[in-house]
Design brief:
By secondary structure, this protein is α/β, with parallel strands linked by helices. It is built from 8 helices and 6 strands; from the N terminus they run βαβαβαβαβαβααα. The protein binds adenosine-5'-diphosphate and magnesium ion.
Length: 206
Protein backbone atom coordinates (compact mmCIF):
# COMPACT_ATOMS: atom_id res chain seq x y z
CA UNK A 1 0.00 0.00 0.00
CA UNK A 2 1.22 3.48 -0.82
CA UNK A 3 1.86 5.55 2.29
CA UNK A 4 -0.93 8.05 2.81
CA UNK A 5 0.13 11.54 1.93
CA UNK A 6 -3.18 13.28 2.34
CA UNK A 7 -4.77 12.62 5.66
CA UNK A 8 -8.18 14.08 6.47
CA UNK A 9 -9.55 14.36 9.98
CA UNK A 10 -13.26 13.94 9.71
CA UNK A 11 -16.34 13.39 11.84
CA UNK A 12 -19.50 15.39 11.37
CA UNK A 13 -19.76 15.39 15.16
CA UNK A 14 -18.09 18.46 16.66
CA UNK A 15 -15.78 18.30 19.66
CA UNK A 16 -14.34 14.83 19.04
CA UNK A 17 -10.78 16.07 18.50
CA UNK A 18 -10.38 16.68 14.75
CA UNK A 19 -8.64 20.01 15.13
CA UNK A 20 -6.51 18.91 18.09
CA UNK A 21 -5.30 15.80 16.29
CA UNK A 22 -4.82 17.57 12.94
CA UNK A 23 -2.70 20.22 14.63
CA UNK A 24 -0.47 17.80 16.50
CA UNK A 25 -0.24 15.28 13.65
CA UNK A 26 0.90 18.05 11.32
CA UNK A 27 3.71 19.04 13.69
CA UNK A 28 4.70 15.38 14.04
CA UNK A 29 4.66 14.68 10.30
CA UNK A 30 6.61 17.86 9.62
CA UNK A 31 9.55 16.20 11.39
CA UNK A 32 9.59 13.57 8.63
CA UNK A 33 8.85 15.60 5.50
CA UNK A 34 7.41 18.94 4.37
CA UNK A 35 3.85 19.05 5.69
CA UNK A 36 0.93 21.32 5.03
CA UNK A 37 -1.90 21.77 7.47
CA UNK A 38 -5.05 22.46 5.50
CA UNK A 39 -7.79 24.24 7.38
CA UNK A 40 -10.87 23.13 5.47
CA UNK A 41 -13.13 24.96 7.86
CA UNK A 42 -14.30 28.15 6.14
CA UNK A 43 -14.17 29.85 9.55
CA UNK A 44 -10.39 29.57 9.34
CA UNK A 45 -9.60 29.33 13.04
CA UNK A 46 -6.44 27.28 12.50
CA UNK A 47 -4.90 30.14 10.55
CA UNK A 48 -4.88 32.34 13.66
CA UNK A 49 -3.49 29.52 15.69
CA UNK A 50 -0.68 28.93 13.19
CA UNK A 51 0.24 32.64 13.05
CA UNK A 52 0.43 32.67 16.80
CA UNK A 53 2.40 29.45 16.90
CA UNK A 54 4.99 30.93 14.52
CA UNK A 55 5.49 33.75 17.04
CA UNK A 56 6.10 31.07 19.67
CA UNK A 57 8.76 29.50 17.45
CA UNK A 58 6.63 26.63 16.16
CA UNK A 59 6.41 27.06 12.41
CA UNK A 60 3.81 25.11 10.46
CA UNK A 61 2.79 25.67 6.84
CA UNK A 62 -0.92 26.29 6.55
CA UNK A 63 -3.44 26.70 3.76
CA UNK A 64 -7.13 27.48 3.63
CA UNK A 65 -9.96 25.59 1.91
CA UNK A 66 -9.16 27.18 -1.48
CA UNK A 67 -6.27 24.70 -1.76
CA UNK A 68 -8.74 21.82 -1.89
CA UNK A 69 -10.04 22.93 -5.28
CA UNK A 70 -6.50 23.52 -6.51
CA UNK A 71 -5.33 20.13 -5.19
CA UNK A 72 -1.58 20.79 -5.60
CA UNK A 73 1.24 21.83 -3.35
CA UNK A 74 4.92 21.01 -2.98
CA UNK A 75 4.40 19.40 0.44
CA UNK A 76 4.74 15.67 0.87
CA UNK A 77 2.05 15.42 3.55
CA UNK A 78 -1.23 17.16 3.90
CA UNK A 79 -3.24 17.08 7.09
CA UNK A 80 -6.75 18.31 6.40
CA UNK A 81 -8.97 19.45 9.25
CA UNK A 82 -12.58 19.08 8.09
CA UNK A 83 -15.47 21.23 9.26
CA UNK A 84 -18.13 19.41 11.32
CA UNK A 85 -20.56 19.13 8.43
CA UNK A 86 -20.88 16.23 6.07
CA UNK A 87 -22.62 18.20 3.36
CA UNK A 88 -20.18 21.12 3.35
CA UNK A 89 -18.42 21.58 0.02
CA UNK A 90 -15.06 21.68 1.84
CA UNK A 91 -15.74 18.33 3.52
CA UNK A 92 -16.68 16.72 0.24
CA UNK A 93 -13.56 18.06 -1.45
CA UNK A 94 -11.34 16.96 1.44
CA UNK A 95 -12.78 13.45 1.50
CA UNK A 96 -12.37 13.12 -2.26
CA UNK A 97 -8.71 14.18 -2.04
CA UNK A 98 -7.66 12.23 1.04
CA UNK A 99 -6.01 8.86 0.75
CA UNK A 100 -6.50 8.28 4.46
CA UNK A 101 -9.42 9.48 6.55
CA UNK A 102 -9.09 9.42 10.30
CA UNK A 103 -12.25 9.69 12.39
CA UNK A 104 -11.70 10.57 16.02
CA UNK A 105 -14.43 9.30 18.34
CA UNK A 106 -14.97 9.93 22.02
CA UNK A 107 -15.75 7.08 24.41
CA UNK A 108 -19.30 8.20 25.14
CA UNK A 109 -22.45 6.49 23.89
CA UNK A 110 -23.93 9.72 22.55
CA UNK A 111 -20.81 10.50 20.63
CA UNK A 112 -20.56 7.03 19.16
CA UNK A 113 -24.11 7.22 18.02
CA UNK A 114 -23.50 10.62 16.44
CA UNK A 115 -20.45 9.24 14.61
CA UNK A 116 -22.39 6.46 12.92
CA UNK A 117 -23.66 8.66 10.12
CA UNK A 118 -20.12 9.84 9.33
CA UNK A 119 -18.89 6.25 9.19
CA UNK A 120 -21.68 5.30 6.81
CA UNK A 121 -20.99 8.27 4.58
CA UNK A 122 -17.34 7.27 4.33
CA UNK A 123 -18.18 3.67 3.61
CA UNK A 124 -20.38 4.83 0.74
CA UNK A 125 -17.71 7.13 -0.59
CA UNK A 126 -14.96 4.52 -0.41
CA UNK A 127 -17.03 1.60 -1.70
CA UNK A 128 -15.28 -0.02 -4.64
CA UNK A 129 -12.38 2.42 -4.58
CA UNK A 130 -8.94 1.00 -4.15
CA UNK A 131 -6.16 2.76 -2.30
CA UNK A 132 -8.49 4.64 0.01
CA UNK A 133 -8.35 4.00 3.68
CA UNK A 134 -10.20 5.08 6.73
CA UNK A 135 -9.91 4.28 10.40
CA UNK A 136 -11.36 5.29 13.72
CA UNK A 137 -9.21 6.48 16.57
CA UNK A 138 -10.45 6.62 20.13
CA UNK A 139 -9.74 10.08 21.53
CA UNK A 140 -9.85 11.21 25.15
CA UNK A 141 -9.73 7.62 26.31
CA UNK A 142 -9.53 7.12 30.05
CA UNK A 143 -7.35 4.10 30.44
CA UNK A 144 -8.63 0.70 31.30
CA UNK A 145 -11.94 1.66 32.89
CA UNK A 146 -15.01 -0.47 32.28
CA UNK A 147 -16.52 2.46 30.41
CA UNK A 148 -13.53 2.66 28.07
CA UNK A 149 -13.69 -1.07 27.41
CA UNK A 150 -17.39 -0.84 26.65
CA UNK A 151 -16.69 2.10 24.36
CA UNK A 152 -13.94 0.14 22.59
CA UNK A 153 -16.33 -2.69 21.87
CA UNK A 154 -18.96 -0.31 20.58
CA UNK A 155 -16.39 1.48 18.42
CA UNK A 156 -15.22 -1.82 16.95
CA UNK A 157 -18.81 -2.41 15.83
CA UNK A 158 -19.13 0.90 13.98
CA UNK A 159 -17.85 -0.76 10.81
CA UNK A 160 -14.40 0.74 10.20
CA UNK A 161 -11.00 -0.46 11.43
CA UNK A 162 -10.02 0.95 14.80
CA UNK A 163 -6.38 1.95 15.26
CA UNK A 164 -4.81 0.06 18.16
CA UNK A 165 -3.22 3.19 19.63
CA UNK A 166 -5.64 5.38 21.56
CA UNK A 167 -5.27 9.04 22.39
CA UNK A 168 -5.68 9.61 26.10
CA UNK A 169 -7.47 12.47 27.72
CA UNK A 170 -4.60 14.73 28.77
CA UNK A 171 -4.56 18.27 30.02
CA UNK A 172 -1.41 18.89 27.96
CA UNK A 173 -3.43 18.92 24.70
CA UNK A 174 -5.40 21.81 26.09
CA UNK A 175 -2.49 23.67 27.65
CA UNK A 176 -0.45 23.36 24.47
CA UNK A 177 -3.38 24.76 22.49
CA UNK A 178 -3.79 27.62 24.95
CA UNK A 179 -0.13 28.51 24.39
CA UNK A 180 -0.41 28.26 20.61
CA UNK A 181 1.85 25.22 20.59
CA UNK A 182 1.78 21.57 19.65
CA UNK A 183 2.60 18.92 22.24
CA UNK A 184 6.03 18.68 20.57
CA UNK A 185 6.90 22.10 21.98
CA UNK A 186 5.89 21.27 25.55
CA UNK A 187 9.12 19.67 26.71
CA UNK A 188 9.01 16.81 29.19
CA UNK A 189 5.39 17.44 30.10
CA UNK A 190 4.44 16.79 26.49
CA UNK A 191 6.35 13.51 26.19
CA UNK A 192 3.47 11.07 26.83
CA UNK A 193 1.29 12.92 24.33
CA UNK A 194 4.13 13.05 21.80
CA UNK A 195 4.58 9.28 22.19
CA UNK A 196 0.95 8.59 21.35
CA UNK A 197 0.94 11.00 18.40
CA UNK A 198 4.10 9.31 17.10
CA UNK A 199 2.37 5.95 17.39
CA UNK A 200 -0.61 7.33 15.51
CA UNK A 201 1.70 8.50 12.73
CA UNK A 202 3.25 5.03 12.52
CA UNK A 203 -0.15 3.41 12.32
CA UNK A 204 -1.32 5.77 9.60
CA UNK A 205 1.83 5.23 7.56
CA UNK A 206 1.94 1.48 8.00
N1 LIG B 1 -6.97 13.95 23.96
C1 LIG B 1 -7.47 15.06 24.50
N2 LIG B 1 -7.29 15.34 25.82
C2 LIG B 1 -7.81 16.45 26.37
N3 LIG B 1 -8.53 17.37 25.71
C3 LIG B 1 -8.76 17.17 24.39
C4 LIG B 1 -8.24 16.02 23.71
N4 LIG B 1 -8.63 16.08 22.42
C5 LIG B 1 -9.36 17.21 22.29
N5 LIG B 1 -9.44 17.88 23.46
C6 LIG B 1 -10.18 19.12 23.72
O1 LIG B 1 -11.54 18.89 23.36
C7 LIG B 1 -12.10 20.05 22.75
C8 LIG B 1 -12.63 19.69 21.36
O2 LIG B 1 -11.55 19.30 20.52
P1 LIG B 1 -11.43 19.79 19.01
O3 LIG B 1 -10.11 19.29 18.53
O4 LIG B 1 -11.69 21.24 18.90
O5 LIG B 1 -12.62 18.97 18.34
P2 LIG B 1 -13.27 19.14 16.87
O6 LIG B 1 -12.27 19.81 15.98
O7 LIG B 1 -13.61 17.75 16.44
O8 LIG B 1 -14.52 19.97 17.07
C9 LIG B 1 -11.00 21.09 22.72
O9 LIG B 1 -11.19 21.92 23.85
C10 LIG B 1 -9.72 20.29 22.87
O10 LIG B 1 -8.71 21.02 23.53
MG1 LIG C 1 -12.49 21.56 14.79
Amino acid sequence: MAKPHRIALFNAKGGCGKTTLAWNLAFGLARHAPTLLVDADPQGSLQHWADWSAEEGGEIAIAGPELLAQGESKHRFWVIDCPPALEAKETQQALALADFVLLPVLPSPLDLWASKRSVEALQELHAGRRGRHAALVLNQSEGRSALSRAAENAIANLGLPVLPGHIARRAIYRSAAIEGKSVYQMGKRGAPAVAEIERLIEEIRR
